[in-house]
Amino acid sequence: MAATTDFPIPLHEYKVVPLDPKQPTLTDEQREQLEKNIQLCRDAIIFFTAIGGAKGLGGHSGGPYDTVPETLIMHGFMENSRQGGTPGIVPVFFDEAGHRVATQYLMSVLEGEMDIEKLYHYREYLSHLPGHPERGFTPGVKFSSGRLGHMWPFVNGVALANPDKVVFMLGSDGSQMEGNDAEAARLAVAQQLNVKVIVDDNDVTIAGHPSNYLPGYDVSKTLAGHGLRVDTGDGEDLDSLYSRMCAAVTESGPVALMNKRKMCVGIEGLEGSAHGHDVIGTKVAIDYLKSRGRAEAVDYLESVEKGPGGPSYEGCDASSVGKNRDLFGKILNEILDAIPEEQRIASVKVFDCDLEGSCGLNHVRKEHPEVFVRGGIMERGNFSAAAGFGYETGKQGIFATFSAFLEMVVSEVTMARLNQSNVLAHFSHAGCDDMADNTCHFGLNNMFGDNGLPDEDRDNTRLYFPADQHQFRKCLKSIYNDLGLRFLFSTRSGVPDLLNEDGEKLFGDGYEFVSGKDDVIREGTAGYIVTFGETTYRALDAVIKLKAAGIDFGLICKATLNVYDEEMMQKLAASPAVLVAESFNVKTGLGSRFGTELLKRGFTGRYNNIGTHREGSGGLWQQMGYQGLDSEGIQNTVKELLK
To answer: What are phi and psi of 19, to 5 degrees?
Structure first.
């Protein structure tokens, strides 16, 4: 093990306990060491995730803290298998809840594959410890996960490839809401795969308690209905948990162990709370570690300073920053307020996918619960339900989730379009800015929403990515009553107000948002940058600095992504050079198609497009610079284009 005595949680005292699953009762010695291991690991998880929180990086403490007992029993089974015992175990701690990544990092240290010092840099830029596990990126991490519901089907394949071994997967009641898991359960039963699903059933997701917002949902009954043997018990009763896991491992075929417990059990101020899903507060962590006698860990946490902020940018007002993902709900409330209650109830339904606080829908739930639907972690079903509600003229379904999950609803988008449904969909966390959760959570392929056929201009699907809070407000209010599918994107990060050359708000009083109309931010004679969203203020800084250096480049904000403003296209086609800069996937974003459209209009100048092209490397605002999408990166690309 790579642990040293310098780490304030004495992980060097951890001793893996080989556990023979054919012996279903722990000896006193095994129990004593397991209990000590469990407490060590729980203290360590609280400590190093709290470091990330104190630096402003987030961290997700509760999930990995909760599942320590079953993880360490699995570790014992794996050690028994490694020593030649039976049954054979695939030595990977597969986990369908990517936010429990702290488990993977801790086990990597305990297995000697990563130095313990790395834990001090949890979720930092270039630390290689991002907010979700990524295979090959972090020492000792053997799989990638993150989007809920994607792991079990994958683990089924691992089991098929290892028919003589047991494959474990740590599950969660939240992940089990996803339709993928239902399909995976049926296949596991039909093929009698030796998959053991160990579900942390704590009745907590990001937005609350499933027992309240999805009455009737029962993971145990659901999995039993698919044909699995289900064993439900107390996840904190170590002897019972061990004997139940022994029975599952020695039994052939798929088994689901449901481990009931409160989230963050034993942590005062968090136990049983949905707040335990995210990173533990510094004060709560300090109080917890004090109660555990971890004085050195407390001293370290009290000395942690918040991480560095991003650079300043010319052409914007850094004192006025809008979080559009949150503003969506507030602006929507203003629209709903103006609709008479009876009409509002009859004509609008707002569907949340357990991410209400991240998409602004928490404001709608509080102010207009009469139109709010807590849909749980079921993106495909909720989008289709929104489309079904918006099937009739005069009715509108509203839907919100992360942009990364747009890829999960592409087929449902097609069916909504074919049914001529009216859906206003807010996809937050677009691009890669401010994303310590890293690559799996990047919202890169948002243009997949524009997948209709250009059949005599019948496709009224529209994609929008406004550049600041004022354009966002005017966009949302302008498009609310439009027919068809409207996709409105926002970033996780806040964006500053853009300023014109006189220092006034660019999209303030007097600005009118017109769907399909591009906006000139700065004129230029040497060429233009075309951009949108959070890349706009970075590109504006680049343009100002380029002009100061004698390169007269202009800037166009294209907030409507999938409609070409013919007047603007003619202007750009006559320009000497065009660069599209965006945080979307460089292979599938606006830039991948924009050059072709310019050629159709007679463009003979120089062209390039830049976007997200590398897997992430942790951190927050640093992600954009890592992709070459900060001001300096954009300037360098313009200079290369003009050579």
So the answer is: -125, 120
